[in-house]
From TrEMBL:
UniProt cross-references to InterPro entries, sorted A to Z: Iontro_rcpt_C, SBP_3_CS, Solute-binding_3/MltF_N
Alphabetical UniProt keywords: Signal
Organism: Lactobacillus mulieris
Protein name: Transporter substrate-binding domain-containing protein
Lineage: Bacteria, Bacillati, Bacillota, Bacilli, Lactobacillales
Principal place of residence: other
SMART domains listed in its UniProt record: PBPb, PBPe
Protein family per UniProt: Belongs to the bacterial solute-binding protein 3 family.
Amino acid sequence: MSWFKKISLFAGLIAISLGLVACSNQKSTNSEVLNKGTLTVGLEGTYAPYSYRENGKLKGFEVDLAKAVAKKAGYKIKFVPTKWDSLIAGLGAKKFDIVINDIAMTPERKKAYTFSTPYIYSKSALIMKKTNNTINSAKDIKGLKIAAATGTANADNVKKFGGQNVSSTDFSTAMELIRQNRVVAAMNSKEAFLYYQKSQHVTDLKYVEVPTNQIPAQEIGIMMSKGNSSLQKKINKALNDLREDGTLSQLSKKYFDGDITKK
């Protein structure tokens, strides 16, 4: 092989090597989100006050929070409303970058997914007809039919205290199951019921707050694909900035009539 061919071959190998490195670096830079410059967010859009529709537009605490996080992190935002039973699976299928949907940071989920730092702390409640005087704590649901969405921490807690879980696709459905006597009560967040009670002028239902020594306040965080540390760092920094400048507290008070961002 002539010296000219050797030099040409060597130069070609260097070019290929540099090209691979460049591609690798580009992939590493852009892999934190599915679409460069845009944060794609999965949520239900049917779970007030977290996310819901008003005149066809998405609104709610987590909608406003997601917009604020995206802005702080330097992203545009795209929402992908998805039913609860497909929401977490959609993250694995790369339909969105994050899921923000009042998701409790359970040990099982932490093993399979990456989470942000908590942005709210949610207390559990048992919701029932106003005439029901038999349920005063989680210990009273043993053997009873209790509504909770399959795959949620609420459903896990129903099972933990011996209740028979009846799956409900969304909050409003759970409330109708109570009214139709298909369940005795529903396990959900106190905050969600208070908003529902106020916005729907509910007078036939009540709630009993579950003591934190029975069910501790749940840490709620933003869920991401396992190992996406680059996106996690950006999300955590944005949440910390929103906490420090008072935005997080203001959003909580706007939608919950109180600050649930502190443990």
